[in-house]
Amino acid sequence: MNKTVGIGLLICLVVFVSVQTVSAATVKGIVSTKVANKQKAIKVTKDQAICGKSNLMTENAIISKSGGVKNAVVQILGAGEGKPGVVEIAQNGCQFVPHVITTTAESAVVVNNNDGITHNFHTFGFENDPVNFSQPGTMKTKKVDEGFEVPEVIKVQCDIHEWMNAWVVVTDGSAASVSATNGAFEIKNVKPGKYKVLVWHEKLGEIEKDITVKNGDNILNISIGE
Ligand SMILES: [Cu+2]
Fold this sequence. Notes:
Layout: H1 3-22, E1 25-32, H2 48-51, E2 73-77, E3 86-92, E4 95-97, E5 100-104, E6 108-113, E7 119-124, E8 132-135, E9 141-144, E10 152-157, E11 165-171, E12 175-178, E13 184-190, E14 193-201, E15 205-213, E16 217-219, E17 222-223
Parallel strand pairs: 1-16, 1-17, 3-6, 5-11
Antiparallel strand pairs: 1-13, 2-12, 2-14, 3-4, 6-9, 7-8, 7-10, 10-11, 14-15
The structure holds copper (II) ion.
């Protein structure tokens, strides 16, 4: 290989690696609390054959032994280019799965009924029009286009089984993640820079943090509800 070609290739490689690194910032960490787990057994009062199959537990405060908070929504405001799309939520064993979803404004939500019995999907937003329909067991899937136009946190309820509830967090397109059972979250492909991070949990409230994101892994541990 002649020297000029060699140097040319080297420059290409350096440019390629730096472009890769710029888009590779990841923000991850644990959402935790000192509040104890508040899960309670749900008393199934209807459709025992389906809803009584497993021991249902409340989901509004699922906290691990080490204090990890499940179902907290972490948003890096202004990061990400979330475009409208389609997200899914299921009515499964008489609970909404997942319990918390994020979506971007003007997206559609697909509601699946896996139970073969009638459920209902009823939203309680403030800025968005309510969605309220009954979903018989034969209607396995239904796409909802209306009701998710404006960013806000929307509670969802099944009016037939009063213990069934969920949350649809409509974002402005900011990069977002819902924390896992141990409180862990991870948001990839964040452009380096300064951001505000908004963390929301249905029971433990809301908290805002500042972060300066650099190339590579950025660890952000968040304590909430204290
Ligand atoms: Cu239901």
